[in-house]
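Friendly challenge for the regulars: who can give me the structure tokens for this chain first? No prize, just bragging rights.
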Amino acid sequence: MVASRMSPENMGRYLVTPRVVPPLDPGFRPAVLARREIARELERFGSYSPVSLAVESPGGSVCVRDTATFPDGHPDASVGHAFCERLVKFMLWSRGGSRIWVDGPTGVTESLRRHYAEDADGQFDSRVIGQTVYGKALEIHAAPRSSFPQDRSTASHLGGHLDGCRIGFDLGASDRKAAAVRHGEVVFSEEIAWDPVNHEDPQWHFDQIMDSLRRAAAHLPRVDAIGGSSAGIYVDSEVRVASLFRSVPADLFARRVEGLFRELRSAWGDIPLVVVNDGDVTALAGAMAAGVGGMLGVAMGSSEAAGYVTHDGGLTPWLNELAFAPIDYRPDAPIDEWSGDRGCGAQYLSQQAVGRLLPAAGIDVDPASSLPEQLVLLQRLMSASDERAARVYETIGTHLGYALLEYRDWYAFEHVLVLGRVTTGSGGDLIEAQARRVLEAESPGAEAAISFHSVSERDKRHGQAVAAASLASISSNRPLADGEATRTSRGPSQPAGAGS
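First reply, four minutes later:
Bragging rights claimed.
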């Protein structure tokens, strides 16, 4: 985090020690508590400047946030600028957008412009969200609030389709999962270890995914639709940003990876094939299992994934990339390895958090071991009732509790489903219990207002693949009878680009 932005000398007095301190992370300073504190200070100060912020996406989705800050010339004006930047950061990564609207003191607008032009992590946000996701650089417009576009969003009704014969897959950094679903019944599911991050050949990725689809298809009389869940940002099933393909050179990424799932759809005879962010599928899995809307899903895997299902059961066009959204405002918070920013969700709610906390717990770790291997070590110690392991899970649960308080400022939800490898085993129960403790301590009644939903140990690992299978509707508008031919009744053809 760049000192000129997030570390003004007087920032510290607005950083609040939480009522529930993470056992292995005592310096944690939750974003939600810091914002409450600065709001109280502005009220005490009595003379503040209103600020309106909006983030607009090319597709027409708009998120508007009204807040307040210190006027230009106030000794804490730079603190106010930093808080506004953190709000915009959350809006960009949760909602998505390429145009930022600002109505407030001139210093706020100038600070944001400098940040996205000069600060390394601001440049990352501008490059990735602006250029990579939306194809244009971030624009910052100073305008009166009356000129802002209105706050609006749309929701699709992907998911919940269980007719016919379907395949669902879930692509993670350490394993890929696939499930075969026949008229709503899971007839096959499996998990295969892989290492996509270190492979630079797109054909390798194609072949690995195709292998999982073929293995699932072997358990069905035909395949009517395919749905996928994967870490990253996907627009109309096109890959825009995905750490799974991090090693693929830029030219190959543009030529093969962006349209990889179109290529797969073509190989399967152009049947319906939909791919969305794994966090959205987490939320969808929870909503389908519980029969409710207003569901936030959080997947603690190789990174943090999040998704949201509206109260009427729809998925939104929002990015929901909360791995990059800040939940800790301390200036020396852990650094995200990809964006270079501090205090973002991935360092607190994922296997990355486990790797960071094991040494703090006094658990010796082989420096050459991978994060999945370190998680297995933690789970083994937890099974042996090791108190050090319990403190790791308690710390992650504390982080989760404060993250949920933060997320409630941005999402209307009453239901939560937490999935992913980090939650596997008895440690997952400890995470939930500690999160409940935080909610009750910081916002009495909040714990009762949020329902935590649980799934079986198998569904914690495979639920996303099953929910993904339900994403696409079958264009025939009716389930086909078993044995009725489709273009894929004999399996996929070899795509034109295969082997190139």
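The two ends are 42 Å apart (CA to CA). Residues 476-490, 494-500 have pLDDT under 50 and may be disordered. Your move, everyone else.
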